[in-house]
Amino acid sequence: MLLDSLRRESTIYLLERRGDGFEGGACGGVMGVDGSERRRRDLRWKGSDDKRNTKVALLRFHSLPSKHARGTVPSCPPSSICIARWPYLIAKAKEGGLDVIQTYVFWNVHEPIQGQANILIVEYSQYDFRGRFNLVRFIKQVQAGGLYVSLRIGPFIQSEWKYGTQRNQSLQCDSYATLTAVRGTNEGFRSGCMTFQASSFALIMKLSRQFHMQKYVTKIVEMMKSERLFASQGGPIIITQIENEYENVEAAFAERGPSYVRWAASMAVGLGTGVPWMMCKQSDAPDPVINTCNGMKCGETFSGPNSPKKPTLWTENWTQRYQVYGEDPRPRSAEDIAFAVALFIAKKNGSFVNYYMYHGGTNFGKSASSYVTTSYYDQAPLDEYGLIWLPTWGHLRELHAVIKLCQEALLWGRYTYYSLARLQEAHLFRTNSGKCAAFLVNYDKALAANLHFLDAIYELPAKSISILPDCKKTAFNTAKVS
């Protein structure tokens, strides 16, 4: 069962941030259930044999990756000052209706000196978890703030970060040819370096479990275990991620691509965290790893999990698009973000949404990838400096509060779909005890609509969703910003 150890009945929202204080992170949302009292139930289409995805202990709302060296000034003060901002950002996330902090773990931040590997020397590594790079301290502060944690280990994370954090580990090799394929089913990525000499390759195969990718992932997992930070140990980490959007390049490796995916999944699951693993944008993620969606419109584009045993998760709901030098900002309206979130929950049976980003930050030094600006997601709900960005922050806060009012119907209710017109529809959830919630959808981008639903008429603005926590009264409309 997903999240066996989650024992709180509440909706959890994740937040990813880059700014002051922590290296990488995303915040989103997850809905928890009282696991000691309730069990999962299959939800079926009323009047249909089609089975919807099983609802589990996750709900929805996520945000963006954050990074350690972030501050409100060009250079970060001593680490204690940066660390001092962590509680503020965590509190703002919770105040915004989020219940989970999702964070990336930046490989080249924590292992700045590459593990040395050659035919005779097994390995040597120097890790850095000091000061503002103190991953354990950050996670414990999130827990102290009353939130859960979603940990994206990677080790490739993209995040518009130089080489996706893999520069030292994957592009520098002592005794072997520099990798031409950074991520593939070769022992270069798994074990350190790749050689095209068959005699050496066999030895690399033997040493592979000791080297870079698995060594690093194992290092992070064992560190979390030693501090009892996984939910299975009573800690705040409820879900973890291996790899990142690998499917975008998988075809380039032919038959080696799927083989690598299976290896990475098996390796991660074998570490025994006691919490679920996910792969974002990886439709062939092998059981029990959960395949998830990234993008702006997962309520419309996501084909769903690749097994009925898996929940529907949205790991990156982009709150804008990152900016490159010479390009105009590409903001995203609060109304559009809210529409996408509500649709994903109602139509896709969504059980997790991460806002990417909820808090952006600053790319100092040479940390950003090519042409990416210093400011990162400056128009996220919390801007580059951690200040509230209105109306986005407030509008999403209201959305989160209303969805929490619907949580019992969403988790335990039977689902019914209503086609009201060509561009209008309704999604209803009703429990046996009578708890009811409805989502009325108007897809028309130009015209408002009057919808007849359950013997009442509801007026919806163009491209909007009205949420009725009792199936009677509209408590929130995605297009109406207060």
From TrEMBL:
<dbReference type="InterPro" id="IPR001944">
    <property type="entry name" value="Glycoside_Hdrlase_35"/>
</dbReference>
<comment type="similarity">
    <text>Belongs to the glycosyl hydrolase 35 family.</text>
</comment>
<dbReference type="GO" id="GO:0005975">
    <property type="term" value="P:carbohydrate metabolic process"/>
</dbReference>
<dbReference type="Pfam" id="PF17834">
    <property type="entry name" value="GHD"/>
</dbReference>
<dbReference type="GO" id="GO:0048046">
    <property type="term" value="C:apoplast"/>
</dbReference>
<dbReference type="InterPro" id="IPR019801">
    <property type="entry name" value="Glyco_hydro_35_CS"/>
</dbReference>
<feature type="domain" description="Glycoside hydrolase 35 catalytic">
    <location>
        <begin position="84"/>
        <end position="164"/>
    </location>
</feature>
<keyword id="KW-0378">Hydrolase</keyword>
<keyword id="KW-0052">Apoplast</keyword>
<feature type="domain" description="Beta-galactosidase beta-sandwich">
    <location>
        <begin position="425"/>
        <end position="481"/>
    </location>
</feature>
<dbReference type="Pfam" id="PF01301">
    <property type="entry name" value="Glyco_hydro_35"/>
</dbReference>
<dbReference type="InterPro" id="IPR041392">
    <property type="entry name" value="GHD"/>
</dbReference>
<dbReference type="GO" id="GO:0004565">
    <property type="term" value="F:beta-galactosidase activity"/>
</dbReference>
<dbReference type="InterPro" id="IPR031330">
    <property type="entry name" value="Gly_Hdrlase_35_cat"/>
</dbReference>
<feature type="domain" description="Glycoside hydrolase 35 catalytic">
    <location>
        <begin position="212"/>
        <end position="401"/>
    </location>
</feature>
<protein>
    <recommendedName>
        <fullName>beta-galactosidase</fullName>
        <ecNumber>3.2.1.23</ecNumber>
    </recommendedName>
</protein>
<dbReference type="InterPro" id="IPR017853">
    <property type="entry name" value="GH"/>
</dbReference>
<keyword id="KW-0964">Secreted</keyword>
<keyword id="KW-0732">Signal</keyword>
<keyword id="KW-0326">Glycosidase</keyword>
